[in-house]
Amino acid sequence: MKLVPLSDRVVLKQMEAEETTKSGIVLPGQNKEKPQQAEVVAVGPGGLVDGKEVEMKVSVGDKVIYSKYAGTEVELDDVEYIIVRQSDILAVIEA
Amino acid sequence: MKLVPLSDRVVLKQMEAEETTKSGIVLPGQNKEKPQQAEVVAVGPGGLVDGKEVEMKVSVGDKVIYSKYAGTEVELDDVEYIIVRQSDILAVIEA
Amino acid sequence: MKLVPLSDRVVLKQMEAEETTKSGIVLPGQNKEKPQQAEVVAVGPGGLVDGKEVEMKVSVGDKVIYSKYAGTEVELDDVEYIIVRQSDILAVIEA
Amino acid sequence: MKLVPLSDRVVLKQMEAEETTKSGIVLPGQNKEKPQQAEVVAVGPGGLVDGKEVEMKVSVGDKVIYSKYAGTEVELDDVEYIIVRQSDILAVIEA
Amino acid sequence: MKLVPLSDRVVLKQMEAEETTKSGIVLPGQNKEKPQQAEVVAVGPGGLVDGKEVEMKVSVGDKVIYSKYAGTEVELDDVEYIIVRQSDILAVIEA
Amino acid sequence: MKLVPLSDRVVLKQMEAEETTKSGIVLPGQNKEKPQQAEVVAVGPGGLVDGKEVEMKVSVGDKVIYSKYAGTEVELDDVEYIIVRQSDILAVIEA
Amino acid sequence: MKLVPLSDRVVLKQMEAEETTKSGIVLPGQNKEKPQQAEVVAVGPGGLVDGKEVEMKVSVGDKVIYSKYAGTEVELDDVEYIIVRQSDILAVIEA
Question: Is 60 exceeded by the pLDDT of residue F63?
Answer without folding.
Answer: yes
